[in-house]
Amino acid sequence: MQSTGMLNKISKALSAMNLLCYVLHLHVNHISSRIFTSEDVLEYSKVSHDSNPLHFDSESARNAGFEDRLVHGMLVAALFPKIISSHFPGAIYVSQSLHFRLPIYIGEEIVGEVEATNIREQKNRYLVKFKTACFKNGAIVIDGEAMAILPAPAVEQANTSA
């Protein structure tokens, strides 16, 4: 008798997890692209107080071994919470690891991708692990992992738009 009850609980949990995986599009990439401008770099510098000449002076950038002025890596990484919050309103971004692989120059098109790789239910919300990556011309320039808490309403909203 106990084994039947346990099987029912397991079956319900698996059904809920399958639905949740469908709703959150587990292993489906969400994408956004952007071309970062000199104005973007200037505005980010004002907020971050990062006035490294590599971002503002072409000669300094070339002397340091780069082709031209660089976009701040953290500015580019801001694509990740933008993508997550646009698909899951109310998401709470709790962590992000980043690896900066290649330089990003002003005027280059960058494509950001976010993929949900793990989902764990906690009370009335979900802790979701995401694989994050930015590309230029198909090459990875930034990658890492993010964690976000999604409230139940965000999951329900994703379910109605899926």
Automatic annotation (TrEMBL):
GO terms, molecular function: (3R)-hydroxyacyl-[acyl-carrier-protein] dehydratase activity
Domain MaoC-like: 32-125
GO cellular component, one term: mitochondrion
Pfam families in the record: MaoC_dehydratas (PF01575)
A Gene Ontology biological process term: fatty acid biosynthetic process
InterPro entries xref list: HotDog_dom_sf (IPR029069), MaoC-like_dom (IPR002539), UPF0336/Enoyl-CoA_hydratase (IPR050965)
Protein name: (R)-specific enoyl-CoA hydratase
Species whose genome carries this gene: Prunus yedoensis var. nudiflora
